[in-house]
# Entry
Amino acid sequence: MFSTVNRVFLTLLLAFLIGFSSHSVALSPALFKVEKAGVTSYLFGTVHVGDKSMDGLPKKITQAIEQTDEVIVEVNIEALNAFEIQKRSIPFMTLPQGRTLKDEISAEHFEALKQYFAAKQINIALFENLAPWAVMVTMMQIEYQNLGYLEDYGIDKQVIAHAKKHNKPIGELETLEQQLEMLSSLGVKSDLMISTTLAQLKDVEQYFLDLVNAWKKGDMDTLNKYYQLSFDDSDYGKFSEEVMLTQRNNNWVEQLTPRLTKESLFIAVGALHLPEKHGLITQLKAQGFNVTRL
# Structure
């Protein structure tokens, strides 16, 4: 079983960024209808990377996109070129001048990272100016790419592509800088994240199998279970939930509430933003919206 910090980091630090899927499970994720004042919108939980089995949105999703006035995503990365993303990300991912990765973590964990990258024929010197959280993200990217999981099959990317195809405006709930600031703030326990991540990387695919299969089947009970597993009552568990989900969900609901009574929106955000008491489903219901599973 993953430690709390590792579960939070791998599952929720990236807002359900990393998805591993089974070819045997048909793609039928949950879609919710949001209604108030005679206006109908849709809420869809996504994963941001996937494999070939996730290529192609289900018909109910494409139809919902086509019926709405605008598609809303967390951040529309597709609107930015690689150079612009890099330029805006570097200030958050790099350490202050005069400091290196070796200064930010214990000697033991630096050596463990050195061995990890050496086994993959990568020189750790490439990362000496990166913040520890950025190194962790890089490690996870290496792992899922080696297993054949790509952003090209990510559901967000497919939603945006379908919206563009049908000339739908694409709105954002936050900026790239806001997401990077959030990720940066989770680096307060870098040594613990490194140790648990290194220990569990070999089990990543198995851990995510049930989680993403649950997403593919629209199994909200299992998604709720993984949410609860990912956040316990430890200081770090509470902190991560507050930073990763509660604050962001609150901000999103504040933005969305006035619009949802005037415009038909298709809202696509990371799947674990939907469940539990701070999730979008519960918060929208509390604002008087009728939220029903389709």
